[in-house]
Recover the amino acids of this structure.
């Protein structure tokens, strides 16, 4: 029913659009948005937190084009390939907008024969998905990726990726969170011992992936009904995917009579144990859950996978904390670079992607609800005049301030009223006003007004820059 | 001949591509490039210089989607519209990649009914142009735009835009530069008094625009031969477009028997005089030239136009400084927002765009030629061990450092050799090594090695963070 309603609404929306087609529609494309100054101020705060974490971990930064050769993206995203934006064939190469930053990263490594790098990349990606803008799902959205490529001892880079997610989510103060961890090899081993035929691994995996949204019963009937899995196999999976825990669960599964017989599962569980040991040293196991229901959609993962979810606020009086959505995800993909390398040379990789739009949405809503007034400029001083005919003096003074590195503005009026100039400071949060007047010019001083206290002091012109610096130094 | 050679090379290149078509081509799309860590380090330096200038002038920042509705871009770029990238019609809206940041800005203002803003926007734009990558001409490239929108007293915002170009080009130390200034109204007035028919203003203007690349004789024969202008009119134009200078030239033209009779030219010259008075107060007229040959291609300019060029280095012993290319440009466009507003409500705008790719190219080449080693990370300390079996101790220590905000790395090996760890610091410029060993652990200290001097000191574990901060505080 929900699907039908959505379809009808979509049709209605399209009709609405068609009606207006004779006149120009003033809008951004579906699923995209502008960022105004206030949104940008929030965005920069979040980017700064994320970037400084990535830099703290010694990452370099790269950038790649927004579009790639179409064939670079072909065969990397499974079913989701239909969501890729293609460019019109205008002669020359066939191009598509990037769908994520991981595939361009792998292409970059193969093309430049890089076998060893730790890099981050913050950029927009594009998906022709059904937008849900209030919940932060867009067709154009930012990803913030951190990846470690190279042949290293097991689980050390993997543990660092989880540490990074933990640092960023703690730093941003989004409320309580949980990082679920699993391993593709454990999933595959589990499918094997439950009697899932090899050919059905992928499709059964994508059923399991739905467990965070729909109850087990529905997933089971999809497996048995739509996908033709035997009820016994489904029930076997059903028992495993309910499990989540920490080291003790890993130990128990290592002793599990069925799983312990499977080579892949054993490998995965052994590495999971190592991972948890490292996470214990990092002191972050409290927010990490080994969860056998975590599957993740993308085809290219080969080992550890993980996903961070925000938990509902405790003050909402729910009995059990419920997840309100994924804000970060990632995993190990040891085969992707090899798909691009002419000689199939492999470069093992593990990485994490921070889902920034959802975080923006939360912070934006929180800021709207709060009283906090966010400044959208960093201007330290407004150059103002108390009398008429002082435009030239204002221009001279502001030029001096700019050249000294002071952030300064003035009104673009020949003869602005002092009251309007002061009001502008109130509106925009400028803390100081440098007022020039006939008398001040004669005396070689500038009247400096502190907006918050309305205090005014005369400052000698040659000391003005220093005085402004001191008075705005806390920012 | 040059054209023919270029054509042949292009054909050869295409043949080469065709030959390889059966196998996968590992490349970025034509006219685009990846930015590796070194290029990104340069890019961030330049962006920081530009952003801090924009912020110094009190600008807010916005962002818009990388694609717009196709019709948003239609009819804004004249002949250059053929260079717009369209997206494939995959159902839904028809979309195009943005061609510049100015038209999306105007769309943003009209859509949000903003009549007053000072904003900057740094983002990539797209043109299906013939790339010349070594000279910094790409199909995907950055623009850094600063614009002032609003109804203000004449020439105050216009003067600030020129001050900004002056500040940025001085700050980046690219060598000597010149900012050419003209006004569309002066050009149109000049065409009128020379007897150019109204219908030919636009096309004659685009001929004049070529004067920075080809000599007057060629431009003249294009006007007379291809565009059917009378020889007398062409010669009239020829006399004017040779003129360049400062206030004295403006005064002279205000007395010019022909120009002074034309309303548009008189208005433009009056404003130009005012502009030069303001620029004199800013102390920057030394690098500004009122130049009647400056025309600029885009259709939407309505008043002042300007373009900054780098001058050839003096040490290359040329008699006259020659321009090696435009690095910034802009002007006044009072009609563009009105094209989007349903009621045609106008918002006067003036702005400047910094052509960053050319600046990158220059700085990249300069850096390659120099001995300077550019760091691509900010890592302060490498956490190392002198003996085997200390992975866990390294993990514990690095976690403490990260949590204290120290930028720290370690090698992802269980038992790395000390020599390899020290070599890593040499290679990447990490200034400090924190070495854990059996003895140090017993004594509650960490051995801190200063890479540059090879000096080593024992630091108590609880003082390590502080010690690292002090020793790396200059960065």
């Amino acid at each position: 029913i929900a699907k039908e309603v959505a379809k009808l609404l979509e049709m209605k929306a399209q009709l609405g659009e068609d009606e207006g087609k004779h006149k120009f529609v003033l809008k951004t494309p579906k699923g995209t948005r502008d960022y105004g100054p206030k949104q940008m101020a929030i965005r920069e705060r979040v980017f700064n937190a994320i970037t400084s974490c990535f830099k703290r971990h010694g990452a370099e930064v790269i950038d790649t084009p927004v579009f790639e050769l179409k064939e670079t993206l072909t065969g990397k995203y499974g079913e989701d390939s239909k969501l890729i934006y293609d460019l019109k064939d205008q002669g020359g190469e066939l191009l598509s907008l990037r769908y994520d930053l991981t595939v361009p990263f792998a292409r970059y490594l193969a093309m430049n024969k890089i076998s060893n790098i730790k890099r981050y990349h913050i950029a927009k990606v594009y998906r022709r998905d059904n937008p849900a803008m209030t919940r932060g799902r867009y067709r154009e959205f930012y990803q913030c990726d951190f990846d470690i490529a190279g042949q290293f001892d097991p689980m050390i880079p993997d543990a660092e990726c989880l540490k990074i997610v933990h640092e960023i989510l703690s730093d941003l103060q989004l409320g309580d969170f949980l990082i679920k961890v699993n391993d593709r090899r454990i999933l595959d081993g589990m499918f094997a011992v439950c009697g899932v035929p090899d050919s059905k691994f992928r499709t059964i995996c994508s059923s399991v992936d739905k467990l965070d949204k729909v109850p087990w019963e529905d997933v089971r009937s999809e497996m048995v009904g739509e996908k033709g899995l035997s009820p016994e196999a489904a029930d076997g999976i059903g028992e495993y995917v309910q499990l989540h825990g920490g080291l003790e669960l890993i130990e128990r599964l290592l002793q599990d009579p069925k799983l312990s017989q499977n080579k892949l599962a054993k490998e995965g569980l052994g590495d999971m144990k190592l991972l948890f040991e490292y996470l214990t040293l990092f002191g972050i196991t409290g927010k990490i859950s080994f969860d056998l229901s975590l599957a993740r959609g993308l085809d290219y993962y080969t080992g550890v996978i993980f996903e961070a979810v925000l938990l509902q606020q405790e003050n909402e009086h729910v009995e059990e904390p419920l997840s309100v959505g994924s804000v970060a995800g990632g995993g190990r993909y040891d085969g992707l670079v090899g798909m691009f390398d002419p000689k199939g040379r492999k470069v093992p990789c593990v990485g994490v992607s921070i889902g920034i739009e959802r975080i923006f949405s939360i912070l934006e809503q929180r800021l709207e609800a709060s009283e906090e007034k966010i400044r959208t400029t960093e201007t330290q001083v407004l150059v103002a005049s108390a009398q008429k005919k002082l435009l030239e003096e204002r221009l001279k003074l502001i030029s001096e301030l700019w050249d000294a590195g002071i952030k300064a503005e003035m009104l673009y009026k020949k003869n602005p009223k002092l009251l309007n100039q002061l009001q502008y400071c109130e509106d925009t949060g400028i803390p100081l006003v440098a007022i020039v007047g006939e008398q001040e010019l004669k005396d070689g001083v500038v009247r400096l007004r502190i907006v918050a206290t309305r205090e005014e002091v005369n400052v000698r012109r040659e000391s003005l820059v220093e005085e402004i610096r001191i008075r705005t130094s806390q920012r």
